[in-house]
Amino acid sequence: MRILYLFFAVVVFFLQAAPASGSAYDTLQCLSSHGRCRRLCFHMERQAGTCTNGHQRCCK
Question: What is the top-level taxon of the source organism (predicted)?
């Protein structure tokens, strides 16, 4: 029975951690253009878009 509870907790965790379809697209678009997803861009970087459905910045 404990294994069942543990399995259920893991499944719920992965369902919540799975990105939405839009967030995966903009993140992949950023990474394919040699950008990095960050909350804030560093001094010599510029913002080139968004990542994770607009929650982070795509910095180059």
Answer: Eukaryota
